[in-house]
Request: fold
Amino acid sequence: MYSPLYWLLPALFVVSVALWPVAKERARLRTSLALLGLATVVWLFSYLPSDWLPAVKVIREVSLAFVELAIVQVGAVIVFDLVLRKVRVRNSQARF
Reply:
């Protein structure tokens, strides 16, 4: 696992839990928590004996992909649920 992911996993978990009471789209937060759990499970697979492991690069890339998807979910909650609600952008016939 990449070294930045050691602090990024707990940080995303804390942000997701902190956003839980104020966010209306809790489905995205549940998804981000599930993806962080999957990333943790994949990270724990890296501690298996080397005979049982696929390539280490595969484990790193899969774990990184789960973390990146969790970042997208948390970012969507922050932008679309919190920021746009503060600006009071409504979904009523917006024309561009």
